[in-house]
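[Meeting: bench + compute handoff]

Bench side (C.D.) handed over the final construct sequence. Compute side (W.E.) agreed to return the predicted structure before the next meeting so the bench team could plan truncations. Sequence as handed over:
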Amino acid sequence: MNLELLQKYAELIVKVGINIKDGQILVIRSPLECAQFTRVVAKEAYKAGAHDVEIMWSDQESSKIRFVYGKDEIFDEVPSWYKEFFLSNANKDAAFLSIAASDPSMMKDVDVKRIQQYTKAMNRELENYRDRLMNNENAWCVVAAPIPSWAKKVFPDLEENEAMEKLWNMIFKAVRADQEDPIKAWKEHKAQLTKNLQVLNELKLDELHFTSSNGTNFTLKLPKDHIWVGGSEHTANNQEFIANIPTEEIFTTPHKTGVNGKIVSSMPLNFNGTLIEDFQFTVKDGKIIEFAAKEGYEQLKSLIETDEGSHYFGEVALVANDSPISNMNTLFFNTLFDENASCHLAIGKAYPMTIKNGESMTKEELLNLGVNDSIMHEDFMIGTKDLSIIGLTSDGQSVQIIKNGNFTI
């Protein structure tokens, strides 16, 4: 790996992704395999003025052992210290960084019901913490770093060291760390995303119609006072941050009951360590009423049946097909990268910030406006090279938003 680019990447995460404030706590969630990278990020955070850096390590292999050999009842339990760790730091205005790196096939043979059981328990216990992040009450950012099993999945024909090197280089390129001044490059990138979302907000769209040759054909109504967002975001105390590095999307929320038609995935989804491939949904009045998958059907079923809200959608995101990550022509098996190569939807909870004054509303008020709620929020990709999106404005005009996968606005 190029150590100079690694340093630039870490600095970018701290100064642009999190935009750490002097005296602020940074909490990092990291896989053990990313320890070297995590230490570099921690050092940069301290240099930038962080009060402390607290690291929560994870180990996917140990988790698999627990899922395979543990007693059933432990998957309904979340240690009280775990909840306290995240919520107490959130209440101290900490910033949160997650490093997304996992073996896409690690959990393939694990009992899906156990994973679903524990996911429900974890999301239930951390609901207040998750709500704070989705309301932008704390700065947060998700990034990635290669691990051998992930690199080999992306590049199965390469030796492990070569696969790791190639994946590092592609990540550096995707996050613009390979440019002479990555921070300047991100300022320019944010400006372009802002330009696109401003155009969409000015159009005051009521509905979007998606069609693609793979069979996708659905309409999606947008709530009154919806807002398109993208690029950087701000906390209530005006700390600017970027929730995903990389990010190429602009997004808003669908109306909970306003999605109708057939939705076909364009890429596999890595969900809880298992790949779901070639899947599709039939949707009526916003609700998934039928679904199918060539691989990972039980995992898809567990996702949809997590709770009532996971039968509906909470995000619609637009990404140009002609974009840096898409042009790499690589399936990353990692949602952070794959979603930024493709237009996508999310099953489950919507971001309150996508509604005017949404951060100050109760869940009931948001639901009354058609904003979905769930303990889940899972993105999946629908963008193709021939995707067409036509918008219908509030005054009845049709506007081509995307044609052949790219923006026309």
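W.E. noted at the follow-up: The mean pLDDT is 95. C.D. will use this when planning the next construct.
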